[in-house]
Amino acid sequence: MKGALSRTHVFHITLLLLLCIHTTWFSPLSGAKFSFYFTTKVDVLPPDISPSIGSQPLLPLLAPSPLKPFINYTLPKLSGLCPLNFSDAEHILSTTAADCFNSFAKYLANVLCCPQYNAMLGTLIGQSGKFSGQLALNMTHASHCLSDIQKILVSQGANEDLKNTCSVHPANLTEASCPVVAVYEFEGIVDTSRLLTACRDIDPLHECCDQVCQNAINYAAKKIALNDMSNIDGDKNLPEQVARINDCKHIVLHWLASKLEPAAANGLFRGLSNCNINKVCPLVFPDITNVVEKCGNVTKNRTACCKTVKSYVSYMQNQSFITNIQALKCAASLGKKLQKASVSNNIYKLCHISLKDFSLQESGCLLPSLPSDAEIDGTSGIGFICDLNDNIAAPWPSASHVVASSCNTTTKLPSLPAATSAQNGLCVKNLVLPYLFITTLLLLSMIL
Questions:
Q1: CA-based Rg of the chain, rounded to a whole angstrom?
Q2: Residue 374, Cα to own-chain centre: how many angstroms?
Q3: Cross-strand partners of 367
Q4: Element housing 306 (H / E)
Q5: Is the separation of the CB atoms in 11 and 433 below 8 Å?
Q6: What pLDDT is attached to residue 204?
Q7: d(Cα 251, Cα 254) in Å, to the nearest integer?
């Protein structure tokens, strides 16, 4: 029987167990420690209605208490060969450990874990540049630093394989092909005053559209990348020059981090990465042949169509948590894919597909489109903000439908989708996730 169950079946059985736990243990208790608001069912999201930035409420999805059996708080033995100063970035390291907590790392990789992991690395390197005068590490130091950072994070509960989860290698901490690494040389080439003014205090919403800081970074990266070339205005689209400019962007970011306080530098990295996170759907769509076959002519057998669609969507629910804006992108991408394959009917409406159906399932959690972090402690466990306005109907693509964009002057990119007039109001629920929740997730991570 050892090989009788597929990973998907194990995943669904585990989530069913969690749902049973939720039903059995989560009845409202007047004396419960944690009380949160969440909205009830929302059936539609008209394409022309833009979600508001300040929509409420939120629900932190709290994992178990206590977490101490899974976290070693003792300081690990470090190599002593990494020049980075960890003591000045303790809070950033703790934030990274929470965002990349062992059982959640692979499911939060795209939205929380890897953006914060990379932000932490950039912040640490930039801060070290204040004293070393260098905006990158050499390969030897980079290897030792990645190893030491991993040990520190694991001691605080983080996943043990973050380098692979986030595809980070020692070379990513070096200057790579960028010809400028010394602070004095950088400051002799770049208009640092202009750069710092553009990036000192970015707005995570407006920056993604206006790109004030990003344009300043790109300009500075081109300056230092092409500094040793005779013709700066030459073809910048050659593969080697594109690679060099991209490598130099990291050097520019490290310089910015050297001029900011650690928390501000980390926030800058997260804000800039957020612009890329919400641009595309991060999910992998399996083959749509079965859906096309069953839904190409819905009038023939609606039940068969919806059964196939639900089965198809369940595959995506195993992949990761995503943001609400990513869910909109995913719904549009899948809808267009099906339309090109001659599925003309709005099967989202027909089969009651919601935005939450594109995110990891247990209670349909969609993360905010703005940068957020998980929190972890030995008393209340681990929690991250979820959007429970999650029964919003997935919009079927049409010629008149445009996915929400921060660059539309009449549309504001939301932190959370707002409820429409179909909302039935607010209710208070008490939520305490039992200790068994984390045990189940840990077992699931080992099985998968």
A1: 24
A2: 11
A3: 323
A4: helix 302-316
A5: no
A6: 83
A7: 5
Q: Given this model, what pLDDT does residue 72 score?
A: 56
Give CA–CA dist 71/213, Å, rounded: 38
Nearest alpha-carbon partner for 325 in 269, 395, 382, 266: 395
Residue type, position 124, single letter:
L
The position carrying tokens 């009917």 is 345
Strands (E), 14-84: 35-39, 59-62
Tokens matching residue 13: 């059985």
Mean pLDDT split into 10-residue runs, the chain, 448 residues: 44 42 32 26 30 36 43 77 92 95 90 96 97 96 97 93 94 96 97 97 88 97 83 62 95 98 96 92 93 85 93 88 90 94 92 90 75 77 69 81 53 43 28 33 40
Q: Return d(Cα 313, Cα 309) in angstroms, integer.
A: 6
Closest CA to 165 of 219, 111, 106: 106
* pLDDT of 61: 42
User: What gap in Å lies between CA 92 and CA 349, rounded to an integer?
Assistant: 43
Output DSSP code: residue 110.
Answer: I
Q: Tell me whether residue 281 is exposed, middle or buried, using C-beta atoms within 10 angstroms of its C-beta: 0 to 12, 13 to 18, 19 or more.
A: buried
Angstrom CA distances, 36 to 57, 174, 373, 417, 435, stand at 8, 45, 18, 18, 19
Predicted pLDDT of residue 408: 56
What is the model's pLDDT at position 362? 59
How do beta strands 375-377 and 381-386 pair?
A: antiparallel
Q: What are phi and psi of 39, to 5 degrees?
A: -90, 155
- Contact, 426 vs 58, CB < 8 A? no
Q: Which of 278, 255, 287 is nearest to 204 (CA)?
A: 278
Cβ-proximal residues to 145 (8 Å cutoff; 6+ apart), any chain: 82, 83, 84, 124, 137, 173
Q: Which two tokens stand for residue 7?
A: 């990973």
In which order are the strands placed within the sheet that holds 59-62? 59-62, 381-386, 375-377
- 0.70 exceeded by pTM: yes
Q: What angle do CA 381, 384, 387 make, to 5 degrees?
A: 140
Check if the beta carbon of residue 381 is closer than 8 Å to that of residue 391: no
